[in-house]
Amino acid sequence: MSTPTTPLWEVFIRSRTGLAHKHVGSLHAADATLAVQAARDLYTRRGEGNSVWVVPSSAITASDPNDKGMMFDPADSKVYRHPTFYEVPDEVGHM
Amino acid sequence: MYTGSITVADTPLLRYVLSRADDALVLGHRLSEWCGHAPVLEEDMALSNMALDLIGQARALYTYAAEVEGAGRDEDAYAYLRDVTSYANLLLVEQPNGDFAQTIVRQLLFSAFIDPYWRALMTSSDPTLAAIAAKAEKESAYHLRHASEWTVRLGDGTPESHERAQQALDTLWPFTGELFTVPAGDRGLIDAGVAVDPETLRAPWRATVARVVERATLTLPADGWMQRGGREGRHSEHLGHLLSDLQYLQRAFPGATW
User: Which B residues in the span 167-186 are in contact with A, Cβ-Cβ below 8 Å?
Assistant: First the structure.
């Protein structure tokens, strides 16, 4: 139920120390404190994380879908930007 | 087909463990009644999560009760095959959900008590109880935070939510005196360091509740007549209905699994 008193919040969870917070979904809550609580209750029930961020959805500025071509297509032809041209020793592990 | 009720041995430790398990099961069942009915999806999940925490605590305690009794029973026997008068939970936890405010205030009043209770029980001379308490305390700490934050927002919210929260506080207050009663059998366990003397938690409990109530701009009710009897199996009219719901399946189809 979305009302002016329960705005939308975006939820980010960090699954392990050292990794980045990742967007997992959204929820409605009256304020930041309740949003963190609701995020914990909705998105960490199966041990998904050890840290939660919530951000008001209204604070997010998104790219315009109509600009997709201009924004993202030029990167398609620059394969040399991918770090795939050298060997990573097994001992390095996760990068 | 009907399965008769069981009669459990009447020893202080068994009675004590069962009474704490009953608190957890009955409150857990009450919260589970919100599943699919809460005012918003977020709270539907939150209340169901808490219900599962409490039912998990009940399972651990009933399993320990089975070990203490040594009569070859399992957790299900205590939950499903005891009648109302054998249940020893507090009257507070069996009170109906009412509106969202009443559920939240009931959770606040109970969690503000049980959280420090579990913390104190972590040093019990009984290692099983100490281990159960250590796990339960983390859960009850969150229940207390959740209920506190919601009480503040209901009390300090709209005129209607304020009135409903105050109504809930006034309705449930007479059931809080029982939190601090010590059944005759518990005294020896307290002296032996197995159980916690609830009287030592009265001041911290009151301070916690008063702090939340003040933030919520609510009024702490005056201490008047306090209801009691749950620990002795004298319950309000509500528990029988709750148990008929809870026990129906195992009574009608003994040993049913799925």
Answer: none
Residue by residue, pLDDT tens for chain B (258 residues) are 446 899 999 999 999 999 999 999 999 999 999 999 999 999 999 999 999 999 999 999 999 999 999 999 999 999 999 999 999 999 999 999 999 999 999 999 999 999 999 999 999 999 999 999 999 999 999 999 999 999 999 999 999 999 999 999 999 999 999 999 999 999 999 999 999 999 999 999 999 999 999 999 999 999 999 999 999 999 999 999 999 999 999 999 998 888
- Closest residue of B to A33, CA-based? B149
- CATH 1.20.1260.10 assigned to B12-252: yes
Confirm if B105 and B30 have CB atoms less than 8 A apart.
no
pTM of the predicted model, to two decimals?
A: 0.92
Contact A42 B146 (CB under 8 A): no
Measure CB to CB from residue A34 to each of B39, B49, B149 and give the nearest one: B149
CA distance B106 to B96: 9
Q: How far apart are CA A80 and CA B113, in angstroms?
A: 63
**Domain at A8-92: CATH code:** 3.10.20.520
Question: Cβ separation of A33 and B149 shorter than 8 Å?
Answer: yes
Q: Where are the domains of chain B?
A: 12-252
Integer CA distances (angstroms), B234 to B77, B100, B166, B241, in order: 21, 27, 27, 14
Query: Do A38 and B46 touch, CB atoms closer than 8 A?
Result: yes
Sole residue written with tokens 């366990």:
B189
Q: Which residues contact B95 (CB under 8 A, 6 or more apart)?
A: B30, B102, B106, B171, B172, B175, B236, B238
CB interface of B with A, residues 134-153, below 8 Å: 142, 145-146, 149-150, 153
Tell me if B42 and A45 make a contact (CB, 8 A cut-off).
no
